[in-house]
Design goal:
Blueprint (H helix, E strand, L loop, with lengths): L1 E5 L6 H12 L2 E4 L18 H6 L2 E2 L12 H17 L4 E5 L2 H8 L10 H7 L4 H11 L1 H5 L6 H12 L15 E6 L2 H17 L2 H6 L14 H8 L5 H26 L4 E3 L5 H12 L3
Parallel strand pairs: 1-4, 1-5, 2-3, 2-4, 5-6
Helix pairs in contact: 1-13, 3-4, 6-8, 9-12, 11-12
Length: 290
């Protein structure tokens, strides 16, 4: 069986997934867009090697930084992995903070639209605000499901719509999944985010970014990458760099929370008020056969 653990960054998905996998004999499948890339281990808060030795993890660091990832590509990578886990009679525990990747995996989309170079050239001259307005005018439903601050995703949505498609679900391609939505009280979540950013600097994220060579357009969007490059170039003080990344991560977490609240029907577990033991017990009950 496939079971999804979803929620915002720093909520505690990876730790709880590890405990669950050890409890039920499962394997963990990463569905976070940036953790798919090789490198950026600190910047994307990948589970460390010691955790990966306890439970088998899949799709961590499996794609070159130069590759342009998409939800369709993720689905292509993930479905064979889920099939292999099922063939071993194991539970697949899918850990996701990426709403679009989650939806592509669990429901499937019409991603068969080829790139439209002419339209892309036209859209490249528009600001993010104008792109978002154009998408709202073209299809309000699709606009509501697209990150208004991500011009690349807005342009792709417009490209699909221009081809006469609407990103509709394809029921024959659905992957049956149940899951849980992890949350925390805002102050608790934001404190964890701030602490995580400080920790990644203590562990050498600047050296990690400095060592990067070729990065593709998707990897370039990783939270904190632009700010750390500004720091390394001497254009941003270290304390300001940390503060900017913390703020951007908090804003991203807010968008994640909004997406999961409105786009999934998974039961929510508030980890601020639940002990790890109670949360694990609640999830194990969801997975238990009826």
């Amino acid at each position: 069986m496939n079971f999804l653990i979803v929620g915002p960054t720093a909520v505690g998905k990876s730790g709880l997934a590890l405990e669950l996998a050890e409890t039920i004999g499962g394997e963990i499948v990463n569905a976070d867009a940036f953790q798919l890339y090789r490198g950026l281990d600190l910047l994307t808060a990948k589970p460390g090697p010691e955790l990966r030795t306890r439970v088998r993890h899949h799709l961590l660091g499996s794609v070159a930084l130069s590759e342009n990832l998409s939800a369709a590509r993720f689905r292509q990578l993930a479905l064979p992995v889920l099939g292999e886990i099922a063939a071993r009679n194991k539970h697949a525990i899918v850990v996701s903070g990426s709403g679009l990747y989650l939806r592509a995996l669990s429901e499937g989309f019409d991603f068969d639209v080829p790139p439209n170079a002419k339209l892309r050239d036209e859209l490249a001259n528009l600001s993010t605000e104008k792109l978002a307005a154009r998408l709202r005018k073209a299809d309000a439903r699709v606009a509501a499901e697209t990150d208004p601050g991500n011009p690349r995703r807005i342009m792709r949505a417009l490209e699909i719509l221009a081809a006469g498609k609407s990103g509709e679900r394809r029921p024959p391609r659905q992957t049956e999944m149940r899951g849980v939505f992890l949350t925390r009280e805002r102050e608790d979540l934001y404190a964890r985010i701030n602490s995580r950013v400080e920790e990644m600097f203590r562990h050498g994220v600047e050296a990690e970014v400095h060592a990067l060579t070729e990065t593709g357009p998707t990897a370039e969007k990783a939270l904190g990458l632009r700010e750390i490059r500004e720091l390394l170039a001497g254009r941003l003080p270290r304390h300001e760099c940390i503060a900017k990344i913390q703020q951007a991560t908090r804003q991203y977490a807010k968008r994640q929370l909004t997406w999961f609240r409105h786009q999934t029907s998974f039961p929510a577990l508030n980890l601020t008020v639940l002990s790890p033991e109670r949360a694990l017990s609640a999830i194990a009950t969801m997975i238990a056969p009826e």
